[in-house]
Amino acid sequence: MNTSSAGLFSTDAARWAAVMARNAAADGHFVYAVRSTGIYCRPSCGTRRPLRVNVSFHANATAAERAGFRPCKRCRPECAPCSPRNMEQVKVACRRIEQAQEEPALAELAAVAGLSPGHFHRVFKDIIGVTPKAYARSRRALRAQQALGTAGTVTDALYAARSR
Predict the structure, then answer these.
(1) Cα 123 to Cα 46: distance, rounded to the nearest angstrom
(2) Which residue stretches of 22-131 are H helix?
(3) In the prediction, which pLDDT does 104 show?
(4) What is the pTM of this model?
(5) What does the mean pLDDT of the chain come to?
(6) Any idea which residues carry the catalytic annotation?
């Protein structure tokens, strides 16, 4: 846990604000539990927002379970945020995008990862922060920017960026 960001979530008011904003940066710093449902979640969980009077905050999943709450089935707060397997699949997809002449289709990237296209899209975005399409566009823009320095014309740079 980063000590500079730990201070951001040291008060209940800051924690509640993180829950209301579904702030993913707060994940790993605390979990919140809802008395009316008996469930605890990550701050970024997409479930229906609870009433503040029903919410308690806990340092981690173990503390919430000791208090008698069970983990949310949607955000799975008892699990590590990103599995090593997913991380490896996304690394492979990034390399494939970077080396491809044409932008690979989502279905193709998902098939290589062994996931459904929708699930792969979510996993990729959770880890990288942008969609596979946005990542491919940013890589192509970077190649075009690099080619501008060496190409004779802008058109040549654009074609060079597309064919790399």
Answers:
(1) 15
(2) 61-66, 84-99, 106-113, 117-128
(3) 92
(4) 0.52
(5) 85
(6) 41
